# Entry
Amino acid sequence: MKASVDMNDPRIMRLVLTVALPAVAGLAASAGHHAINAIFLGALGPEVLAAISLVMPLFLLVAAAGQGLGIGLATLLARHHGEGNLTAASSVAATALAATIPLGIVLSVLIYLGLPDFVGALGAGDSLLAPGLDYGRLLAFGVTLGLLQAVCDFIAIAEGNSRFSMIVLIASFALNAVLDPVFIFLFKLGASGAALATILSAMAALACYAVYFVRRWGTVRVTRGLVRWRLLRPMARIGVPAAATSIVTGFGFVVLMREAAVHGGDTGVAATAIAVRLMTLGQLPIFGFCLGAQSVVSHAFGSGDALRLKSVIRIMLAATMPVALLYSILLFAAAEPMARLFTDSPQVVDEAVAWLRALFPVFPLAAFQSVLLVMLQSRGRAGLSALVGLAPQGYFLIPLLLLLPLWMGFAGVSTAPAAAAILAAMLGLFVARREWLAILPAETEEQLTGQSTLHP
# Structure
């Protein structure tokens, strides 16, 4: 199971696919799990699905912490690999894992204590409050486990062993999908059963990673003596903008669910929950591809190879944007049968169909943004990364969510994400053009390309 990927492989397309496709498979399994989980919960009634969606913004904070820490460590780890410094890479991994435990405990306590007030502030009625608390309070106990699993995934992917990450993710989510109906229906635990299945699946994944590190199937070593707390600062410089993006996404999700409740009632919340699940199903594989390819980008930056870095970015765009467009077309054409997988309520289905079709421009534009963020994060452009990353889920989306429903009613809720994605893409194009030329001017790139052609 040792990582056998040569990050200096001159066959760049093959290298990117080798590293990225397992990450795609792993996060596609994650997205599929979320969708299947929603189908099981939807069988308990649309109010249960809506209730679960109301508590999810708090757990997006957990995802934000894991993503920020993970992207920071992955970028630094891959850079040190590019420099040939495996000891420094190991220290990054060990420090990130050590920091995860206290962070997870703090987040777990905050979520458990704050959950009732949070759900109540969203205007949830009694039919939504009880299942939301049942699910959220139990899941809060698994926060540290989930964070540790996420950090381990980032370590494996960053050192080029994305295949192992894929195997663990698929296995853990398959276990979760099997346990869901057992706990929800057979043991009659309802929403709490879904939370318990998630916790047990995370424990199984961590057991796999314990074997991974003990047997040294990867290139880095993880021991207490390698922990260097000073490394949290450079990790934070890279990871905080990514975490801030997820935090703002969580806040945007709060506003989204609040506006759905105000303008659409319980039916609108349930329809929005379905749309969000299917949006995640389309976006997570794209994010997975970019996450896997980020190790190649960071390695190229660490080794000072600007021409190689630009080649990887081109491959990422060519791979992600057509796939995202195909998903948009599929969602638009099959909106009604896909919505019916989650509920048999005609009112919820009608609202969900309109929601899904309004998402058409979101996916290809989100793919472009994901590639741009990888380019910025890998080069240490934290400020620009925050500016671009916060746009579609933050400072463009939230004002649109507050304004458009006043004019369009519930339709304004579903229109806001597409409008925000378009505005964010316009900003992203401006930033991308400047950064692309800063990596390597066009004239220099032509000269280097011509030299490599003359001297293969």
The first helix runs from residue 12 to 42.
